[in-house]
Amino acid sequence: MLNVLWNAIRVSPVLLGASMMVAQGSALANEIAIDDSSIEAIAASENFDDGIGSMEQVTSVSQLSDVSPTDWAFQALQSLVERYGCIAGYPDGTYRGNRALTRYEFAAGLNACLDRVNELIAASTDPLATKEDLQTLQRLQEEFAAELAEIRGRVDALEARTTELEANQFSTTTKLRGEVIFALAGSNDPDFDGEDSDLDQVTFSQRVRLNFDTSFTGKDRLRVRLQTGNSARYFGDRTVQARFGFEARDGNIFEAYDVYYRFPFGDGFRAYVSALGLGLNNVHDVVNPFFASSGSGAVFRFSRRDPLIFRGPDGIGGGISYKKDRFSAAVTYLADDADDPTEGNGLFNGEYSATASATYKITDTWKVGLAYSYRYFTPGNDLTGGTGGRSSRRPFGGDAAVRSHNIGIQTSARISDGFNISGWASAAFTDEIEGNDEATLFNWAVHLAFPDLFKEGNVGGIIVGQPPYVIDGDGVDEDDPTFHIEALYKIKLNSNIAVTPAVLFLTSPNNDDDNDAAVVGVVRTTFKF
C-alpha cells in the first residue's frame, strides 16, 4: 500500500520542514517589521494571496503553468497532485513554488494530504506495510537524519528568537529609523565688512534624527521625528551662505521636529496633514535626484533645492500630490506660526506659502518641472530661506510685511550611467504690503553628478550657482552676485555608513565684492540604522 507514496516521501520531509521554517520567518517579519521610508510593502506582506483569490485543486501537474519537469521538486509535486490530489494551484494556473508559504498554507496542505492518506488506508484491503516498506522507511529515516535534525534545531532557535522579539518590540505598526551625522569642518579667515571674521577654528559637531514611522493600512504613514544637534553655522551671522545642509543648532536637546500624516486616496493621489515640520520638499518634487538629501546629498544648504521655491514658509498645514505615469503635480498651503494664536500669526494671518508644482518626464532619463509660489512674510523675516545675502534676505530693511510671487523651472537629465546634470532657475517678485517699494530676486544652480564614480554606490558632485540676489529694486542697491562653488565625493562604506568630504568656495560673500572669498572644508560622516 505505501509503495505508491515513496517518490513523494523522499522529497517531502525536507521540503515540508524547510517550508515550515521559511513560513515561520515570513510570519515573524510580518508581525514585527514594516518597510523603510514609505512602508508601502506592508500591504504586500500581509496580503497572502496577492489579491488573486483562493487556491483551487488541480488534477494534473501539467495544469501548473510555472512547473516544468526540470524543477528539482517535480517528481514530488507530480506524486502529490496526480496520485493523491492534495496540492492546490492558483486560479491563474500557477503554483508559485519559489514563494514562501505561510504557516496556515502549510497546515492546510498537510491536512489535505493526511486526509487523502487516511482515505487510502481505510479503503485498502492489502496489508498496511510489508517488510520491504519498513526497510524503505528505515533507509529514508537514516538518509535524512542529518537534514531533519538541522531543521529541527533551526526551527527551535527561530521560535526562541521570535519569542524574544515579540516580548521586546515596542510596536507592531511602528518602525524606528535613525540617522547620525558627524561633521569635521574648518575654514579660512575672510574679512567681512572690513573686519576679520574670527571664525576660522576647526570644529567637530553632530546631528541626530530619530524617525518613528507608523503605518495603519500599509500605504499610509504617520511620521514623528525627534532631532537634536550642535552643528556650527560657519561665519555666524556675517553671512548665511555657508550654512550646512544638515544644520541643527538645538543645543543637544531632543525636540519634536516633524509631526505629519500622509495617506493615499483615489487613483494616484496622496494627502498630507501636518502639525509640525512638513517641508515643501516632502510634498513637491524638487527635481534634484542626487543632492536633495541633507544626510546623503549636498553638504551645503543652498545646493539641496531651489530656495525661492522650495524653502519656507512651511511646517504646518497640508497638501495634495498626484502621480500618474510620467506626470506628477502637487499643491500645498503651509504656515510657519500656525500654532500661535496671537494677532498676526495663526494659520492664515502669519507667514505662509501657497505653492503649486508640476513635473513631466519627457523621456525615461529627462524630467522638467515648473513651480509657482505665493508667499507672505511678516516684518523682519528672510525671503530666501536662509541662503541669500543681506539685501536679498530683507530687501526693504525688515520693517515691513512683504508678499512675493515666485516662479521657477527645474530639470534633471541622466546623460549616461555615470553622469547626471540637473539644475534650477527662479525669480521672486516682491513688494511691501503697506508701501510702494518693489524688488526682484533671482537665483540659479547647476548640479553635475557622477554616480558610481570609482566604485558602485559612490557619488561625485560639482555644484555651481548663485544664491538669491537682488537684480532690480526700488531704493535697494543691486547686489554683486555671489558664486557658490561646491565639490563633494560621497564614499559609501556599506549600506549604513557613508563618508562625504566636501569643499565650498564663495566669491563675494553676502553679495558684496568688498568681502574676501570664503572657503569651508567639511568631512561629513553619515550613519543610518
Key features of this structure:
529 residues; alpha+beta; 16-stranded antiparallel β-barrel; 20 strands; elongated; disordered N terminus
**What is the overall pLDDT average?**
84
Total number of helices = 10
Q: How many angstroms separate the termini?
A: 57 Å
Percent of residues in helical segments?
A: 10-25%
- Overall radius of gyration: 31 Å
Topology pattern, helix = H, strand = E: HHEHEHHHEEEEEEEHHEEHEEHEEEEEEE
Strand content: 35-45%
Q: Outline, from the CA principal axes?
A: elongated
Which class do the helix and strand fractions yield? alpha+beta
Give, in spatial order, the strands making up the sheet with the most strands. 3-6-7-8-9-10-11-12-13-14-15-16-17-18-19-20
Work out the number of β strands. 20
* Main sheet attributes: strand count, strand direction, barrel closure: 16 strands, antiparallel, barrel
Given as residue ranges, the uncertain stretches (5+ residues, pLDDT < 50) are: 1-54
How would you describe this protein?
This protein is α+β, with helices and mostly antiparallel strands and 529 residues long. It has ten helices and 20 strands. The protein has helices at residues 6-32, 42-46, 74-83, 103-123, 131-143, 145-168, 280-283, 307-310, 346-349, 390-393, and strands at 56-57, 88-89, 174-187, 191-192, 195-196, 203-214, 221-229, 255-265, 269-278, 315-324, 327-335, 352-363, 366-377, 402-416, 419-432, 438-451, 459-473, 484-492, 497-506, 518-528. The strands form three sheets. It has a 16-stranded antiparallel barrel with strand order 3-6-7-8-9-10-11-12-13-14-15-16-17-18-19-20. The protein has a two-stranded antiparallel sheet with strand order 1-2. A hairpin with a 2-residue loop joins β12 (352-363) and β13 (366-377). α1 (6-32) packs parallel to α6. The radius of gyration is 31 Å and the shape is elongated. The protein starts with 5 loop residues before the first helix and ends with a strand.
